[in-house]
Specification:
98 residues, 4 helices
Length: 98
Amino acid sequence: MAHAPRSALSLLNTDGRAHPRENALAFVTIALGVVAAVSGFFTGLHALASWAGLIGVLVGGWGQMVSATTGERFLLVIGMGGAGFGLYMGIVNGGFLG
């Protein structure tokens, strides 16, 4: 028996209901985590890394409070890890202001 292909959002909405706000928070946290982690490696981008990391941690924390499924929480934790790493690297390289 062949199974229908599953979309990426179906992995987040495992309870069968749509969660557009929670999914958006998860994807924004992932994006901010990637930006913060990558820019944290460059000393000249310390302000970007710091701000993206701080906003990513805050958005991810709010997303954890309102998340409805385990898939959303998984993405939020991964994104918050990247955002936290970028935040720390940005602070070490010069902080929020420049």
